[in-house]
Every structure is written in C-alpha cells, then in structure tokens.
Design goal:
Helix content is 24%, strand content 24%. It is built from nine helices and twelve strands. The strands form three sheets. It has a five-stranded mixed β-sheet.
Amino acid sequence: MRLHALSTGTVRVKDSFLFPRPGLRRQLALFTPGEFSDPLPIHVWVIEHDGRRILVDTGETAAARDIPFARFAVAPEDELPSALASIGLGIGDIDEVVLTHMHGDHMDGAVHLGDKPVLVSREELAYQHTAMPRFFQRVLRQPIPPGVDFSPFDLDGGPFGAFAASRRLTDDGRVLAVATPGHTPGHISILCIDDEGRHVLLAGDVTDSLEQLRSRRPDAVGPKPKVHVETLDRILAHARDHPLVFLPSHDPESVARLAASETV
C-alpha cells in the first residue's frame, strides 16, 4: 500500500474557526471581524493498493470565492489534474473517488472527473440538500458543482474498532470508510491499514489539527458539538487499541506525520 498526500492550494481561516467560542458565539464569531491563520493546505489523498487507485476528496478550484471565515489561494495549476500529475497520474488512472464530505474545498475539484462517479455517504448527500445547507450554499456562493455524478453509498458493514459504522472499499478490508459525524452529520473518514499494520485515518475535516483531536474540541461549524466530541472520543479510543496515524486535510503537519508514520 502507498499513500500520497497532494495539495490543491491553500486556505486561511479565521481564528474563531480554529478556536471557537462556547455557546451561541461559536458560529456568530465566524461572521464578525477577526484574525486569520497562516495558509493551511487543502489536501487530497491517493491510495494505491492491490492494483487500484482510490482518490479521497477532490480539492478546491481557482474559482473558489472567499467567505467571511475562509480566504482561498488556489491557482489553476494547483487544481486536481496538476496535483495528480505531480505523482505521474492522470484522471484516467483513478479507479474510485470518495468524498469525506460535501464542502467546497473537498468536492469542487470533482468538476475535472467527467462522468466518473464520486462516492458520498448517503446521509451526507441527503443533508446537503436540506434547507440549512442549501441556504448557506446560496449565501456563501458555494454551490454543489453541477454535472458531477455524486453517488450515495451506505455504511452497511457494521462497526469497525471504535467506529460505529463502516464499509469496505477494498475486497481485503484494508481500506474502509468509517463514520465520523460532527463537522457535518454524514462526514466519513477513510481508514487504511498499511503494510506494517498501522491504521492511517484520512480524516477530512474531523479536526483541523492533531492538537484539536487531543483537546477534544468541537469545531465552529458542526451543527451538533456533542456529536462531534463523541466522534473525537471514538478516534482516541481507536488509537488506544491500534497504532493510529491521524491525517486531517488542513493540518500542515499531516504530510510529515505520514512520512514518519507518526502515531497518535
């Protein structure tokens, strides 16, 4: 098994996004003046295993619009085709595509995939078509990309380790989707069991950093902070039973942790 971390540009986010205030101010502070972080990567991942290549998330595009709590820096040469080319691959070399969740910086790059299906958890796809997400898609000018074949799938494989639900993405069970709700209700992560038996969690936006996981801090945008903390506790519980490499999509340290196989 080989795992590749690729970047599709960067994003700066408001400090109130990374370190949210408690109570009602948690989301309100996202829309009031505040300081922004240094640039953070927008990672996508390629898993090469058993003769197949799985793309996890599709990254952002140069058309991304800034929003009150995020400022994007994505050039055309940062987009998915160039990211794949950096490891000698093209769109046609990808056998399967799966999204952790349907926020723009994780799904917008799917416009490059043509008619290739993009797997999304059924709960996530349904949630993104409910009233509140549709309202923010319009207000923040971050629509679901048109012309993409978002294909729902169910986490019907039962529990896996500390995770309540899962689904195998490979026949040998070494690549799985696992339920990690919180940032969005249908958020998933991709768990890979590497050649040394370590569990590598491609964690999407479960957290923005390893520090946030260890602090058990819910983020500023998830609709139910309690659910988010329960997911963080499940990940920490899984890490107690299995050597776990934790790789959020926007953590600047994720690439180094992957290279060093550094566990939680």
